Amino acid sequence: MTRPARFKGIAASIGVAVGPARVIGRERSGVSNRRIEEAAVSSELARFEQAVSKSRAEIEAAKQELTDRHGSTYAPILDVYLLMHADALLIGATSEAIRNDRINAEWALSRVTERLKKPLLEDASSYFQERARDIDHVQDHLLRHLRGEQRSEPATDGPTILIAHDLTPADAVHMLAPPTVGLVTEMGAGSSHTAILARTFGVPAVVGVGPLATEIEDDELVLVDGFAGDVTVGASPQERRAAEARRDRFTAFLAAERSTSAVTRDGVSISIMANVELPSEVQAALENGAEGIGLYRTEFMCLDRLEPPCEDDQLEVYRAVVSAMAPRRVVFRTFDWRGDKRLRAHDLGERERAWLKIQINAVLRASGDGSVALMFPMVSTLEEFLRARALVEECRSELSDERARLAELPVGMMVEVPSAALLAERFAQHADFFAVGTNDLAHYTLAFDRRDRRSAAKPLDPAVLGLLQRAITAATEADMPCSMCGDMAADPVALGLALGLGYRQISVPVSVLPLARAVVRNVDLEIAAEVARDALQCTSADEVREMVVERLDPHLGALWKEQGIV
Q1: Looking at the predicted structure, is the pLDDT value of residue 332 above 90?
Q2: What global pTM score does this model have?
Q3: By C-alpha distance, which of 226, 223, 162, 224 is closest to 190?
Q4: Fewer CB within 10 Å: N-end or C-end of the chain?
Q5: Which of 302, 395, 482, 485 is catalytic?
Q6: Using an 8 Å Cβ cutoff, are 67 and 75 in contact?
Q7: The domain at 38-147 falls in which architecture?
Q8: Does residue 193 carry a catalytic annotation?
Q9: Domain 5-24+152-238 = CATH 3.50.50.60
């Protein structure tokens, strides 16, 4: 392979890393498939049980290490994998396959995991695609112990860039610590637990680069650009010096931005909150100056369960988050167990309705411990939202906890389907707040197939911008809060346009908070509003982006170029 070699992947954790490669997991063993005699079934079951026990112990050790380094709120990341080690659908079914089909443990495990992954991989949601990767990660742990393989150990001398096919979250806890300064994986996505850990630990990461050339050797120089998703192997001395200088400037930038406010050039304060999926991200949100949590995704609590956690278990998590963020607000988004996030409150089955009430009760009880709000996703009709609000009041009336019953709980909705944006004026008469999800709104507006990974709907398309303007206009006229929590708010180019449309509250991933503040401070709202008006007259998303870059470049160009954005 010629040098320098360049690869493109997904920017999973922002920053720049420079160091020698440390390649792990290069030799990936295949799964051995063999039949066994009936007399060997008991010993094969024992071998599998031993692998489960060792794998569980390994993950528990990683959980303890994570807790020691970053506190107990980080534990839920690995609790998911511990739960799977006791899951009848995975562990029990594998034992049954060994017993009934008389096959070895590796083959049985492979069969069961493929069966469990199939419906997840068929779902259009990236969330469920990632849950299939979670099953893969548990399988990787179990296979490693079935084969008697040892886990790779981090290097002990000097900064290194970890190069891997994939990295399980438990291995990430162990290996994303000094001297590791960067991560590159063939597999993965920006929403994976490993990516979340990389962001938590402040390790620049590029994932999903596809098959890496086997010629990459240990100690080769690697540059990781966690902004653009670029990886360079065998860079020139000049490229290395430039990357190191950029890395050092960004480190200084982060330190400075943690203490700054988000005020535009013309003196308007913008509220910047955090999007959070795991309790482990709450402390990082605080450290990065989040003014609250504008979107707390509760899906992580639903992994590998046939039904939701009980009310008290949910309450424990919610209270911990609310108490940690107090007096800042936390907005919890409800989760629909059917996989498409659609509320459909008017046709919920009895069991699903009971599940939703459990979650609402837990949020109501947590609302007495701080500032809490509740919002429903994928609302498409006014009837749906009115029924959802009625369900909240039903839950409130049934509570025995008087403090929780009397606590304030604003009830809002996600605006992420065209019908919600088109009827925003009517929804604003009944909702306490809006949160606009630009990702889904773009997909549904432009009719993109979410399974098609070759292309993606673009929030900067003029059709989507028209709906975004309609939502913020309706909220402003109703004197009601309206935040933007999709990828558009986290895009340093698109953010200026969002401000021009009228958005004054945004919620972004934790790692983007410092960058979002820097963008805000370099935006003149009068100019941004003119750009937004002109953007609505453009013919394509690409034309909009080009215009935004050209018109806002005088104030934002240096920041964009420094981060490798344009």
Answers
A1: yes
A2: 0.76
A3: 226
A4: N
A5: 485
A6: yes
A7: Orthogonal Bundle (1.10)
A8: yes
A9: no
